[in-house]
């Protein structure tokens, strides 16, 4: 079923394209208008701010906790009855070391708080934690899609692979705009959106 949207689009392919175009433009603004500095690092509130920022022109559910259970592959993300409790626990998880930060990221993926757009919003959220606490970010250009997605699938039972993969891709270039912008394009590519390049929108 196609998601109900504010654009009144009923064609899935058209919605995918418009979702990509509009939300990528917002991802660019998030950086260029420095709104990214308003994000409360490492909290659900911060993640919700990012999600709302990206998707508010497209979906009513932007920034809001989902109201349905969702699964991918054969993994059921946090059941609704535990979701709010789980998000409070994640807020309190430590984020001082690389391992702690990735463990927190993995837990946020297990929570999967939104109806759609979790992957793209949570990768921005992850980079902000790494930037603040380790003075590093991930250069997503060094994380291949065919490695990343299986590692995320496995992360719900074993996080060694995702830690290894992301650690290899860390960079000190935390204020490099090109790395951020390219990272958005790659993050969208992981999820099957590659119609537009962020710099050309
Ligand atoms: N089988 C799975 N088990 C655990 N996590 C998964 C699985 N499949 C995908 N994911 C994670 O979910 C993300 C996609 O979630 P989704 O809400 O669709 O975000 P987006 O709309 O940005 O693609 C992926 O980037 C990955 O991190
Ligand atoms: Mg998706």
CATH topology: Fic-like fold
- How many domains in all? 1
Helix content: 40-55%
Largest sheet: 2 strands, antiparallel
In CATH, the homologous superfamily goes by the name: Fido-like domain
Task: Describe it.
The structure is a single chain. The strands form 2 sheets. Strands 1-2 form a two-stranded antiparallel sheet. It has a single domain (12-200), classed as Fido-like domain (Fic-like fold), CATH 1.10.3290.10. The chain has 201 residues and is mainly alpha-helical. The protein is 55% helix and 4% strand. Magnesium ion is lined by residues 116, 191.
Protein topology:
Elements: H1 12-32, H2 44-55, E1 71-72, E2 75-76, H3 80-91, H4 98-111, H5 118-134, E3 137-138, H6 145-155, H7 160-168, E4 170-171, H8 177-190
Antiparallel strand pairs: 1-2, 3-4
The structure holds adenosine-5'-diphosphate and magnesium ion.
Adenosine-5'-diphosphate is lined by residues 72-73, 75, 109, 116-120, 152-153, 156, 190-191.
What keywords describe this structure?
single chain; 201 residues; mainly alpha; Fic-like fold; two-stranded antiparallel ribbon; 8 helices; binds adenosine-5'-diphosphate; binds magnesium ion
Short description:
With 201 residues, the chain is mainly α. It has a single domain, classed as Fic-like fold, CATH 1.10.3290.
């Amino acid at each position: 079923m196609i998601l109900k949207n504010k654009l009144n689009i009923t064609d899935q392919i058209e919605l995918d394209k418009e979702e990509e175009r509009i939300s990528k433009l917002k991802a660019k603004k998030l950086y260029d208008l420095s709104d990214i500095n308003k994000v409360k690092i490492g909290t659900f509130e911060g993640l919700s701010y990012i999600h709302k920022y990206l998707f508010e022109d497209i979906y009513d559910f932007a920034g809001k906790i989902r109201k349905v259970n969702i699964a991918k592959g054969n993994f059921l993300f946090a059941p609704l009855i535990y979701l709010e409790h789980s998000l409070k626990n994640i807020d309190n998880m430590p984020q001082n070391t690389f391992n702690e930060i990735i463990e927190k990221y993995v837990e946020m993926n297990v929570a999967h708080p939104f109806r759609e757009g979790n992957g793209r919003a949570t990768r921005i959220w992850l980079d902000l934690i790494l930037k603040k606490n380790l003075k590093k970010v991930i250069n997503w250009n060094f994380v291949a899609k065919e490695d990343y997605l299986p590692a995320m699938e496995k992360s719900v039972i074993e996080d060694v692979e995702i830690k290894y993969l992301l650690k290899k891709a860390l960079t000190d270039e935390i204020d490099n705009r090109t790395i951020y912008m390219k990272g958005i394009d790659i993050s969208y590519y992981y999820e099957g959106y590659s119609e537009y390049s962020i710099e050309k929108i």
